[in-house]
Amino acid sequence: xxxxxxxxAAKARITALVSGADPQTPVPATPGWSVKDVVAHLAxxxxxxxxxxxDGVESGEWGERxxxxxxxxxxADAFAEWDANLELARPLFDTPMGPVLVAExxxxxxxxxxxxxxxxxxxxxxxRAALVKPxxxxxxxxxxxxxxxxxxxxxxxxxxxxxxxxxxxxRTTSFELMRAIxxxxxxxxxxxxxxxxxxxxxxxxxxxxxxxxxEPFEE
Length: 219
Known about the structure:
It is built from nine helices and four strands; from the N terminus they run H-H-H-H-H-H-H-E-E-E-H-H-E. With about 220 residues, the chain is an alpha+beta fold.
């Protein structure tokens, strides 16, 4: 399945998921944001992708700006903007930006699922697709910083990140890996996964955003 259908399906699931929910329900995976804020971020983020506006990505201000600028909008406003911006961003799905958009929407789908206590959709192709770009980024980061190679064993096969022979192995699921490298797990939670080798060798490299969640997050 290509990027656009994956994104559209996730958007449809999110729309159904939050229908009837309190828009002000807190979303613990994204502290300080509500259900409405997450949808506003997805809408605003798409516009920023279409406009190639990425200031504040490293600091986290990128997403905060989108939410702050839409704080007075309703959930219906957020969905209307998401629809409009999706059409603007359509050409991006057939570019290297496509997997980034898929990773973003799938991560936030599960943030909303956790907040609304409706888990699901953890075992399909969507989560594996959401790992494509993050694993490429991890591989490059490990090579650039001379981090020893790591074998990651998932339910659908193995992947070696970094250069050379693996110095250790991490066995987990695609869902847990997505949440771990996406900042939804604490360092202690990641260290508690099934490792061969000292996880401290890789723990810093596994924080794609530059930091792990300070406190454990269960979902």
